[in-house]
Amino acid sequence: MKTFIGIFLGILLISCGGPKAYFDYDQQVDFSNFKSYAFYTDMETGLNELDEERLKTALDSSLHARKFTKSNTPDFKINIFAEAFSKANNSSIGIGIGGGSGAVGGGVSGGIPVGGDKLYLSITIDFAKAKDNELFWQAVVEHRFYNNWTPEERTNFFREVAEEALENYPPESEE
């Protein structure tokens, strides 16, 4: 019985995974040329002002830990765009009725959905060259989001998003 409970809890933890990140970048760019950054001043992030500031602070912290500096004359600029979307809940309870005798049988079954749709936030982070605004790197991070989170929970959420987005930045050279 203990083994069954352990396996069940392990599967439950794996299925509740963290943020999912997707990356794209210009393979012709020399990433060693980028040492300083700034945020675009006219961003339309799709986040409220508090959440936007939380995400920018989290990105600042992650970039600083990677030895990048914030500058008024940056090598690259950062743009952020966020969009909320819903995913249908795949959980359901199955009900079945069956019967028969001999070589004849029949059955009816159906599923009853449990819970409603889940809210997710998709956050796109673009890095563009400061001199010509040419996009050279992009990360899209998707993660479950709750509107009723406390300010501390939101701060932790945006820290996770920033870390996941920058996990593979700069990309390894393929030479």
List keywords for this structure.
elongated, alpha/beta, two-stranded antiparallel ribbon, 175 residues, 8 strands, Double Stranded RNA Binding Domain
Structural commentary:
With 175 residues, this protein is of the alpha/beta class. The protein has a domain of 120 residues: Double Stranded RNA Binding Domain, CATH 3.30.160. The chain is built from three helices and eight strands. The protein has a six-stranded mixed β-sheet, covered by helices on one side. The chain has a two-stranded antiparallel ribbon with strand order 5-6. Helix 2 packs across helix 3. The protein is elongated and about 80 Å long. About 7% of the residues have low confidence.
Topology:
Blueprint: H1 2-15, E1 20-25, E2 36-39, H2 49-65, E3 69-70, E4 76-87, E5 92-101, E6 104-113, E7 118-129, E8 135-144, H3 151-166
Helix pairs in contact: 2-3
Number of helices: 3
Helix content: 25-40%
How do the strands of the widest beta sheet line up side by side? 1-8-7-4-2-3
Q: Which structural class should the secondary elements be placed in?
A: alpha/beta
The CATH architecture term of one domain is 2-Layer Sandwich
Shape: elongated
Stated plainly, the CATH topology of one domain is called Double Stranded RNA Binding Domain
